[in-house]
Amino acid sequence: MKVPLPLVAVAVLVYFAERGTTTDKKNSADFRALCHAYALYEARDSITAGTPPETAANVLQIIEDYNTSTASDTWYANKDGTMKNPTGEPDANAQTAWDKHKQSLLEKETNGKKIYERLKMTTTRAAANAKIQKALQRAKNINEALGDAATAYLADIDSIKSKLTSAVFGKETATIDATAATGNWGARCSHNGGGTGLTISSSLALAITCLCSEKAGSVDNCGVGSGSQWEDDSNNYGEAVKRLWTALQAKCNTYTRPALINPNTIYAAIAGVMARMGKGNTHAAPTKTNVIGETSDSSCDGSTGKLCLDYETALGSAAGGIKWINDLQEAATLINNATETAIEAKRLQQLMDLERQRAEDAYTEALHTEHQAQTTTTVKIENKALNQQQAQKDCDKHHASQENCTKAQCNYDANAADGKKCKPKAEAETTAVGTGDGETLNAEVKSALKNRMRIQIQ
């Protein structure tokens, strides 16, 4: 049973292709294919799965600050009395920090323009704050989701590295366990692994060691530059495997490793290994097709002519496959998961920015309304003051004639103490627009007019 591989793996398989040489030994190509799978472990810190998610605390703070600028007066003063110490008393330190924060907001500027101007108590401010509160709550939920995404992403990255480690060493420890790799080649490197411990199916490191270390003689079957011999009774404590693997690992590390780890590079490495199945079998009528390495009769016994890896049973319909390949495939799936998490986090960050924009729009609209109301009031005051001045000039012309004074729509006071008998009619009091503090427009007009008259008299 062949391991199913994506078509893209075949397309990028060229990455792992290395030219053979005239000095290649019989298992050299197989060794290189397994080394390329091992290289995935060595490149585990170069996993490509999108931009790591992170919370948007800075954006959340901006929305919080807009909320502060539009909050009710009691909340603005002391957060409605919610700042308490463990004894239930008002927390003076928290209050001091809060006051400093509010002051810092009032001082923030961009190109001379205040960013967080405190709005006056109006229905416009209250309406803006209601909108900002909703944006703030949504932003908090989004930020929490971003935190979950960041946690999930890092967990996937850790799991990917664990799977790559497990694929090589059969365990999530970055070294071959000599105590789990004891015994002779015939038992340890057989298709069932001799019962317990590491097997050629559970550990890529052991598979490479078995492929390149014969029981007798000193033939350099994998072209590593020296004889790798696994004599019977030389590995009672796993010492031979540990020594042999160290040399083979060093040789594997001379080959090019991928600059980035993604599902394509993983599946390409797996495809490279699967492509070697049966290539070294010179049996005229092979009884096994899932064998990697040299054999003349489809069997593997560790001798010079039968130094191979028998995966026929592992890839049978009743088996679970080659475990270290399964680990690599799971690593590829985890990379896809992490990538999807990164993509979702990017979408959440965009939503977060949208909530910031909503809060900013609500604040800006309220600020504009407040400024517009203040400008309208000022213009009305100025106009009223000018009208009163003109009326005074018109009435001043008729102090000598009650009839003419009346015709000029002025009030005539024959007993005026200042001798100015013809005076403008008083304006009716009108509530000022946009002040929100109970003052009247007429009072402001009188004040402005009084100041102007004082200037004229002087």
UniProtKB/TrEMBL annotation:
InterPro entries the record matches: Trypano_VSG_B_N_dom
Bilayer disposition of the protein: Lipid-anchor; GPI-anchor
Record localization: Cell membrane
Domain of life per record: Eukaryota
Signal peptide (UniProt feature, chain positions): 1-19
Keywords, comma-separated and alphabetical: Cell membrane, Glycoprotein, GPI-anchor, Lipoprotein, Membrane, Signal
Subcellular location, principal: membrane
Trypanosome variant surface glycoprotein B-type N-terminal domain mapped to chain residues: 12-350
Gene Ontology CC terms: plasma membrane; side of membrane
Function: VSG forms a coat on the surface of the parasite. The trypanosome evades the immune response of the host by expressing a series of antigenically distinct VSGs from an estimated 1000 VSG genes.
Protein name stated in the entry: Variant surface glycoprotein 1208
Organism: Trypanosoma brucei
Lineage start: Eukaryota, Discoba, Euglenozoa, Kinetoplastea, Metakinetoplastina
